[in-house]
Prior knowledge:
alpha+beta
Amino acid sequence: MALKHVMINDIISEHSERMQNLKKYYPFFVLSETTFSQYKEGKYSFLDMGYITMASLRFFINENNFHEKDITYDEYESFLLELLKRDFGIDEEPEEEKQLVLYIFDKLKNDGRAFEFKFYDPEAKNSKIARVKLIDSKVGDGTVYYYITAEGIEFYLDTKEIKDESKINVSQLLLEKMISSSNFKGGIDVVKRINSQVIQLSLEKERVLKLLGIDVFEGNKAYEQYMATTAKWFNDEQKLFAKNKALVDKAVERAAYENVEGGKSKALEDIGKLETELKKTIYNHSRLISETMELTKLADSIISRAKLTRLRPVFDFRQMLLEMMNKDMPGGMEHVILPFLTPKLGKSFSIRSIDNMLSLKNDDKDKGEKIEKNVLDASFEYEDEILDRKISRNFYMIFMELLDQIKKWNELGLKEFNGILEIKFGNEIYSNRDYYSFLVHLAGKNSYNINKMLEKQDTLLEEMVAEHMTDEDITRFGDMAFTIRMNSENVIELKTDEDMSYVTDMIFERGNG
Length: 513
């Protein structure tokens, strides 16, 4: 019974808001049903008003927002005439074509009136009218300019994102219009959409980094595509963020000034929520930019190292001999043999040295043997102590590198971590026994908390790391914690100088310290 009551309450209380959200679609369906059957006795009944409407909205978005330009009727007339001739094959007298464009434009802007969407509000128990315009006008310098409204942009975005433009940019243009029209509640939804798009870009960046660690060729393609389609919009996006933040600040000042008698208005509350969401999105976007710059450095290092490893380290005499035989060019042997025929300088004993030997005075005086008292060297270390200190230092360096990467990425796989170690320490790390010993000790626990580790060490690895940690390390990583999840289904192959090694994959995930 209680569930039924909740359902009925949701239906009644949410109906008005749902209808307000639907109103932006209403003009399109009214226009798409508009036929040309009554215009010129149906001569142009083959024209599709739905297509003309969508094309017109795209034209206004492009000119008003991307080029920041107001549109006159003459400019729209030129655009629509070109569309009608290109897509529908219209070829009439110039005067008749202009009358057709005027008829279509009047339909599109509904003769200057708003489209009225009627619905029943069960909560207020009366009928309401929602009004919406796709195209509006303003007068400046004696000229009428036309522009697309916020509802027009939002409707167009809901059908399909604009191609070859930053989705964040377009959403911010919609946000600007909503702030200007004091639609702060709708602006909150737009900012949440922008934040979602920023998070998607961050996930795409992570995918590119993982692909670079697995396959440098495919990773390079994904990296170039990411930079070409995403990173090139960063400057424009940052400018729009700053512009919208300034608009929100002005709205806060205006709402606070208008809020008389100290009562908290609904508009001020919505502006506060909008400002919080916008700050969160700006922070995420700034972090994405810095991480993308770091991705550029990592990609360059990985690609450069991959190029170097593919260079032949030795000269293949057998292959060279086969090529000279196939090409019948014995003269090429000159370049192979000459380096071995360089003159060798011989050494001889100088005659003058004999005179020096004969005239050499010999010291026949007996010298006493100096007996020194052996003193125990306190700094002396045995070989096993030196080895333990070296292992301890290696464990500390790898563990600090792991903490640094987990702090940057929050979640990291062993394969990606290996790629970073390879960049910093070279491929030789896979031939170092300390690396495999470190992984065995690390897998002895499924979670690590640095604060607790500094207070009490449970394992040999923790003792070694805690011994070498400096005050700077404690400041950076003291509040960190992470968990280890074994991925036994994935086995990583590591090529060493002698043979192949196989290591079970691990997933490192940051937690709360």
